[in-house]
Amino acid sequence: MSKVGIVAYGTIPFTKEDHKIESILHKSTNDLFQKNPNINKKEIDAVLVSTNNNSKYLSPILSEMVGIQPKIAHSIESLCNSGTNSIVSAFSYISSGLADMVLVSGAERYDSPGQILEWDNSRGEFKHPIFWASIFSKSYKQDYGISDERLAIVSVKNHKQAKQNPNALSKKTYTVEEVINSTKLTDDLRLLDCSRPCTGSASVLLASEDMAKKLTDPPIWITGIGQKTTSAGFTKNTSLSSLESTKLAGQSALKMANHSISDIDVAEVHDAFSVCEPMILESLGFTNPGEGMNMIKNLYETNNFKINPRGGLIGAGHPLGATGISQTIEIVQQLQNSAENRQTDNPKKGLIHNMSAAATSSTVLVLEK
Amino acid sequence: MSKVGIVAYGTIPFTKEDHKIESILHKSTNDLFQKNPNINKKEIDAVLVSTNNNSKYLSPILSEMVGIQPKIAHSIESLCNSGTNSIVSAFSYISSGLADMVLVSGAERYDSPGQILEWDNSRGEFKHPIFWASIFSKSYKQDYGISDERLAIVSVKNHKQAKQNPNALSKKTYTVEEVINSTKLTDDLRLLDCSRPCTGSASVLLASEDMAKKLTDPPIWITGIGQKTTSAGFTKNTSLSSLESTKLAGQSALKMANHSISDIDVAEVHDAFSVCEPMILESLGFTNPGEGMNMIKNLYETNNFKINPRGGLIGAGHPLGATGISQTIEIVQQLQNSAENRQTDNPKKGLIHNMSAAATSSTVLVLEK
What we know:
2 copies of one chain form a homodimer.
Chain A: E1 4-11, H1 21-35, E2 46-50, H2 58-66, E3 72-77, H3 82-95, E4 101-108, H4 130-144, H5 148-162, H6 176-180, E5 184-186, E6 189-190, E7 200-208, H7 209-215, E8 220-229, H8 244-257, E9 266-268, H9 276-284, H10 292-301, H11 312-316, H12 320-335, E10 349-356, E11 361-368
Parallel strand pairs in A: 2-3, 2-4, 9-10
Antiparallel strand pairs in A: 1-7, 1-8, 4-7, 5-6, 8-11, 10-11
Helix pairs in contact in A: 1-2, 3-12, 5-10, 9-10
C-alpha cells in the first residue's frame, strides 16, 4: 500500500451565519487554494464532499466553482463522522492507484438535518442526541461515582482551549459553577455540556507519497485507520459507560500504524457532550475505565492542550460534515508546529477520533510527520 | 492492484409503490443474501448506500437490519450516477487493502429529490431534466438530420427489451406511431422518450480476488474504470451533440481494461431520454458521430439485445441511486449467461455507462469473466 499524505488545508471561522451550503463549502476550499498557490488543480483526480445537507450534486458544483474537472466526484454522508469517512475514502482512492490527489471538503449549516435521526425510535420521545447524551451521563456518573461538578471540567477545559482558536464558535471561558448553573436541559445535562451545531466548512488535500513530498514540507502521513459501526440504534449499544465502536476503531488504527496509545502525543476526540470525552479517552485506552476525568482534570490544571487543543466540539462548535475534517486539520497543524497559542510540545504522532449517533459508529485516524 | 470481482447481487421489481427508503433498501439486500446463503456477513468490511434520498445514516441502519457490523459505512450521492460512484468506491476499498468484501446497496423512491437540480439556473425556468433533454434532442436532430420518427426507435426498442425483464417498470411495447403520438412535453420531447422515476433497489457484493474465487463460479471482474466530471451546470457542456464526460470516461475505462470498444459484446448505457442513447453510443465510439440511430435501428430489426438488454432506463425505469447498480447486475447476468430471455450470444466483455445531470458527469465500467 503506497503512503498517503495530507498536503494542504483550508478553514473558515465557525459561526451561526445563514449562508447557502454551496457558498459555505466554497469558502474553505478557496482558503486552501489561496494558502497553496503551488497546487495544480488539473492534478486533482477526485473531489469528495462531506455533508448532511440535503442539496444534491455538491461535488460537481464545488468543482465547477473552483475550476476542477475531477474523475471522481460525489458526496458522502454518515451523520457526524461524515468528515473522517470522506478522508478514509480519499485515502483508499490514492492507495488503490485510482487517484493521485484528492480534495475533501466538508460543510454544514447551523440548521443541519443531520442533528435528528428520525429512524431511531429507541431514542424516545425526542430524537435529538440530548436523549442518548443524558442516558450516557447518568450511567457514567453512577458507574464511577462522578459528580456533575467533576464532569463540568470537560466543558471548562474545552472552552478555555477554544479561546486560543480563532475559528472557534465560542469566544468565552466558563467556570465550573457557570457550567452547572447553565440551562438545565435534562436531569443530567446542562446547555454548556453540549456542543452546538453551527455553520462551518473545512477542506484538506490528500496526495500520494511522491506528490506529497513535492508539495509540502513536512507532509503529514496517515499511518493508521480504524473504523467500526456496531449498530444504528442507540439501544443496541452493548454498554452505556464505554464505547464499543470507538474501542474497536482505535485498536485497528493503532495496529495499522504499529503504535500503542501511549505513543500518541496529541489527540482530537469527539466531545459532542461533556460525558463523551472521558468515555472516549477510556475506550481508546488513554486511561483506565472510570479514570477519564482524572486525566482531564490533570490536563486542565497543568494547562496541557494534549486533548482537543482547538477546543473540541464543545468549544469550537460542531458543523457536522466539517467536524472530522476540522479535527484532522488541527492535528496537521500540531504536527507541523504551526498551531500558535494552541501548540503542544513538539508532537510526533497525533490521533483523530470522530463518531456518529451515540458512538454507534466511530472512525480513528493516526497521523505522523 | 489486486483484482476485484462481483460475487453476488440482489434485485426487486421496479414499481411506483410508496414505501419507506429503509424498507426499499432492505429488500434487494435481503434478496442478495437469500440467493447466496454461503456468504458470511461477518466478512463484510464495508456497506455503501447509493441514494438521493434525504434520510440520513442509511448504511448503519441497513447494516443493523441485515446483521452486519461493518468497518466502513456511509451513503454516497452524485444524482443519477450515485450507483456506479459507489461501486468504484467499493473497488478502491478492496484494491487498497482496507476491505476484503463490500456490500453496495442502492435505493430510491419514485419521488426522489434527485430529479431536480435546484442549483442549476442555466436549465431555465423549470429545473427538471426535461429542459436539457429537449435542447439535446433539438440540437442532435438538426446536426445530423434525424427525424422524430427515427429517434423514437430508441423507445420502441427499449420497451420491447424491457418486456423480457421481469423487474422492469414498463410492461408494454409501443410502435413508433405510439411514441410520436404520446403526450408532447416540449417541441422535441414526448412522454415515451423519457425514462420514468420509480421505486426500486439493487445490491451487489464485491470481493477481493481470493475471496471472489471461493464464492462464485465464475466471478465477474471489474477490469476497467473511467470517471469524469466536466461541470455541474448544463450550459457548461462544450457540445450539445456529443457527451464530453462520457467520451473521456469511456477512453479511461477501456485503457485500464486494455481493450478497444469493438471488444465489448454487451452494454448498459444511460438512456435517460431517447436522444441520450445514440449520443452515448457515438461518444463511447461504438459508432461514428451521427450514426448512432443506424446502429440502434439495425439492432432493433435484427432482435439483437446488445445495447440495454434489460430495457434501459426508458423501459426498466429509473430509481436514481439504484440505476447504476441495476445496470451492473444486468451485465453480470449477461456474462454469466443467466439473463434468460434477454441473454445475448455468450458475451465475454461487458460495459456499463452511467451518467448524471446532462452528462456533466459520467462513469464507465468494463466487466469480464
